[in-house]
Amino acid sequence: MKKIPFLWCAVSAMLILMACVQENDALLVWLDNDGWAEEVIAAFNEKYPDIQIEYQNVGSVDTRGKVSLDGPADIGPDVYIMPHDHIGLAINDGIVEPVPADLREKYNDLILTASLSTCTADGELYAVPISTENIAFFYNKDLLGGAPVPRSFEEIQRFAESYNNPQANKWALRWAVDDSYTNYFFLTAFGMELFGPNMDDYRNPGWDSEAARRGVEFHHSFKKYYNVKVADANYDSTVGAFQRGEVPFTIVGPWGIDDAKKNGINFGVTKLPTINGNQPRCFSGNIVAAVSSYSKKMDAAFTFVDFLASLEGETILYEQTGKMAAWKDISTIPGLRDDVYMKGIQEQAPYADPMPIIPEMSQAWDAQKALFTFTWDDQLTVPQAQQKAMETFDTSLAVAGKKR
Length: 404
Prior knowledge:
By secondary structure, the protein is an alpha/beta fold. About 40% of the residues lie in helices and about 15% in strands. It has helices at about 5-25, 35-45, 65-70, 85-95, 100-110, 115, 155-165, 185-190, 210-220, 240-245, 255-260, 300-310, 310-320, 340-350, 365-375, 380-400; strands spanning about 25-30, 55, 80-85, 120, 125, 130-135, 135-140, 175, 250, 265-270, 280-290, 350-355. Strand 1 (about 25-30), helix 2 and strand 2 (about 55) form a beta-alpha-beta unit. Helix 2 packs antiparallel against helix 13 and helix 15 runs antiparallel to helix 16 (about 380-400). It is globular, with a radius of gyration of 25 Å. The protein starts with 5 loop residues before the first helix and ends in a 5-residue tail after the last helix.
């Protein structure tokens, strides 16, 4: 066997060591879209050429669990993104570094207050919201027939009385009638507070309240104007029908825009119509950027996070993904400021409650859905459905080893 010279082995080992050191000098960031990552990193390096970036594509819903494992092993990211409702567990796991005070002050003026609240605990900001989304009211301009865009559900009812034809399955408004996320606004229109005023008291979900009863009753009253079974109010027959130009109104989020545009539908988007004169509050979801508490490059990491939330960073995010910045004012963001559909989505944004970040929210979805599913199909009365929701929640908590 041919012997390898000692000097060559030593040189090879040194080269490997240098490569590892060089790689470790790079800031490791986890983002979930290759096009966005490529463009935003290139723009960042134009401004900060001395900060090297290593990128890995990791889904936002997967990052928290991976950081909890990879961080202690010193192979985790310096910067990562996640849905805002993961932040509570991330704080409990000790995997997020608080945002410096100067940046926190800056974001108070820039970013939606409700979005910032999802990342705040004990006076500290633990991540930076970079995008947000919520549902809104979509309307087909051609099918309005010259009628004004309804600004209240009472106006939708009046429109439906002349438009609907049940025998032809023709309905003015179609939406996912039992979806827990979508129909939350019926409850808030009458003052229900999910998990209390701060949305953090899992012992007080609110589904057995008088406000919830009135909300579910109003929701059920709309069966007169959309008389189908829950099973028949699926995505294709509601949002899909709107995207094909078959229905005047639907309720959906920005994910419903692209197919309607591709189909050439002449449509608009605006905030949810009022109910009894009250502006309903819907859920919102945010994607947030965080710095790992295991990072050894804190200054560089926060510099990158700050760039993601900057005008240039948010412009690139919109251009590459179509997502909306979690800003109070989007009028300065090129492209986004001229997007009439996203501006319609943002009309509802001030009336949006970020999904609660408490861990017990994971047990809430099926419970809240029970309010709508069983009443819409007339299987339970409203009080019975309220009791069913509470029982469902208590059972789910018990399975998780908790008690209300």
